[in-house]
Write a structure and sequence with these properties.
The chain is α+β, with helices and mostly antiparallel strands. The chain is built from eight helices and seven strands; from the N terminus they run αααααββαβαβαβββ. The chain has a five-stranded mixed β-sheet. A two-stranded antiparallel sheet has the order 1-2. Helix 6 packs across helix 8. It is globular, with a radius of gyration of 22 Å.
Length: about 240
Amino acid sequence: MTDPQEQPTRHPSLIPTANSSDSLSSRRKVIATLGLASAALCASPGKASAMWKWGAINDVPVVKVKTIPSDSRFGKVAAPSQKVGGFPEDWVRLQGRNLKNYTNYLNSLKLRNISAQDVIAAHAKERGSVWNALPPRELWVRMGYTLRVIDRISSEMRTPVKEIVSAYRTPAYNARCRGARRQSWHLANVAVDVQFDTSARNVTSATRSLRDRGLFKGGVGSYSSFTHIDTRGQNVNW
């Protein structure tokens, strides 16, 4: 996703108009400000990710999934259906029109091995008295990048996705998830916990291999029964 181009700005002259201490002080302040700006522009994507504050969720770096050479034999592992349904009525009522619209968005991604049903089912869950929910519309596009990574893994391994265990989580729902971090990448809608019809160890190995070949930048977490995959913009393993 391309960031909007910023309009060029004019910097004030750094030449003092008088030999006063006020002019010299102003000059030093401008130079210091420009120095900080230059440092920020030179920061690597990984450092920018590390500096991201959770209060500014819209500033999360979004990493595009690159096309890399693939064996032509790799294709659809399981043709995904565009139909969704079978979710708890209470949950469906809470989503309103968001359910249909998000379904249309997921289908528009034209994933080869993942259906909208697979993704949405990960949101139709309740812990205690707290329902999870579909992500806010402004965060939808982020999940597309991560789903494309998982779709590619499925094709490379020639193994179908068994279950998307978790995708977006609301803050309230995330707080009920055992072991979940308060600043989980699931809150930013860039993370997926996924199971394939093979061992999680195999999935983790394949995912890291594809990432090292340049498919994406992000986190890969290995767990006993699933693999965490996100497109945070910085390579991290655990």
